[in-house]
Specification:
alpha+beta; Aldehyde Oxidoreductase, domain 4; Aldehyde Oxidoreductase, domain 3; seven-stranded mixed sheet; five-stranded mixed sheet; 33 strands; 25% helix; globular; binds dioxothiomolybdenum(VI) ion
Length: 759
Amino acid sequence: MIAKPRIPDLLPEPGGPVGRPVPRVDGRLKVTGAARYAAEHPVPGLLHGYVVSAAIARGRITGIDTAAALAVPGVIEVFTHRNRPDLARFDRTWQDGDAPRGSPFRPLCDDEVQFSLQPVALVVADSPETARYAARLVEVTYEAREHRTDLHAHRHDSFTPGKAKGGFEPPPPPRGDPDRALALADVRIDARYTQATEHHNPMEMHATTAVYHDDGTLTVYDKTQGAQNTRSYICKVFGLPASAVRVLNPFVGGAFGSGLRPQHQLFLAVMAATQLRRPVRVELSRPQMFSFGHRPETIQRVALGARRDGRLTALIHEAVQESSRHETYVEIVVNWSGQQYRCDNVRLDYRLVRLDRATPLDQRAPGAATGVPAIEMAMDELAFALDVDPVDLRLRNYTDTDPNTGKPFSSKELRACFAQGAERFGWARRRPRPRSMRDGRELIGWGVAAGVWDAMQGRATARAVLGLDGRLTVSSATADIGTGTYTVMSQIAAEVLGLPVEAVTFRLGDSDLPTAPIEGGSWTVSTVGSAVKAVCDRVRARLFDLASAMDGAPLGGAGARDVTFAGGHIVVTADPVRRVSLTDVMRSGGLPAIEEEAMSLPYMVARSRHTLGTHSAVFAEVRVDEDLGTVRVTRVVSAIAAGRIINPRTAASQISGAVVWGIGMALEEETIFDHTLGRCMNHDLAEYHVPVNADVPEIDVIFVDERDTVVNPLGAKGVGEIGIVGVPAAIANAIFHATGVRVRDLPITLDKILMRQEE
Ligand code: MOS
């Protein structure tokens, strides 16, 4: 019942706004400060909550003395597990749409401490300063139990996670005899790769403003990637009907996965607001951003065997990753290796270790950003051992069929990524031998790596209203976490109806809008974009029907395939003087507005017969100070194959942002634990290093042509995550090329380079 067959199924060919570098439609609001974030909505009589965080990693709270805090003028209440309301008890009630299997953390539930920095009290006061000051006066005493936070120390106490929730695909069964093939290989690589824990630090810290209304309903401004996920969590936990809760997130200051699940500030703000019957805001401090999920620490082994000609004969990729005790968090780490390279003898293995830490959490390209660097560093090691160019080695093991499933890729222009990226970078001028390129005391290195990510799709609904003023409003309860959703959805709608982008308003970030899933996994263009196209196709079909029935036959009996929608008109393509404006069509039909709603229709059957993914080839140049071991990334070229690019400007911005983060993964980002305390020690941006402007070079983004008629009616795959995947290995490989030192432990800090240089 969606798009009628006489309407062209794929998007029209270029000419309209799709494919153009349209500036962000919300750009002005953002740069003028008019865009409001979760902690910025003005509310009269607002109270402020400040979180008190646990000082131990595991144990019981034996006492909480709140008297001193309560005595501070301006303090309204201190909530602890002793005076919080009696709420839902079942795990299911606390599981949000992105929850892994297990028992979700419940703030202030009881006297148990499950991880360091867990919230143990909330001080509510009439100003943020008072709340923060009083929070320091809350005295908590504990009975600590033995804890474990060290993945390396406990890596052998691991288990294979069973069936997991969500899109998790367990590693496929082994193929051939990988151990024997490895033993018999002409050339072997067998090494361990590690990557540190990394915490989410989007610019906007997590915050919730919960407005309690006298009739018992709530308006909640939350930092979230899914307003409806947040609403359903609140409704289940607090026993409220959906009609009593409205969640708004019109602007999100970066999220990268940290807003896929409701975080504890949401619960605390809503609890305080409903208990006090007042509006309450809870905003986490920067150190408290380290008090919930993170990219899990990972230990991997990659073993490769190859013939002299570079063909892989054995591929073993094993990963051990952390999860919490209370939930079983899984991601796809090793499967990518078996998907990227052709090899007859393969074993992929993924295991978990339970630690007393917060449950890990999706972070940009979860799993791929961890697992792909390991295989891509190993491939570089193999290329060196074989004396084969690293690009060439990857092409010798290239595959157009997914070896994990036997299915063809719906499209995979990775060869073009290598070719165009190499050309732009000047790869042909690379001298293969390490330490062979230098400039004074700086060693220069060039490295390459491939990247891969899914092209997922979910189901979303969109509504479109075309008014007599010629303006089109399209809405869906998705989010724009900085990716450009407002802009690309406006472009898709404008394209289908032949309107200028300025004539379209796209609304999102409101749980009352038509159903959409959480914005994540790079699936929003595909999921919501397809719904936007479907609903605009319906409007288009209605307009055409009305025009065909008009007196005077302005279209002269032309069929649906003979007309173009352009400039606010329906135009007979072969005879453009025959035309009629959309508003005239509506007037003739006596319609003040045309309103339609539609759900995205994924090409389920076609999709299920293919492996769908985005691909990249990343080329990086580093300069390493030979004496100091300091690394500067001086150039990056990232060539991306992600189907049709709806907006090359916002898409390139996704990719360059991801390259910046990849530099962080390669060189800087690392949450350092004191395992005696079970606590992270560098929980602020002074000591948890992320790249700053001075660390970021020229970034060159290429989108290669990729036609895909399987992914969705747009031919677009989404680019939110692919940009980071190849970057850490490209930089690590460039460091090896510069120095001859192979560091397999991310981040590659200067001490690791200097120490191995000594060896
Ligand atoms: Mo992404 S980790 O799904 O925001």
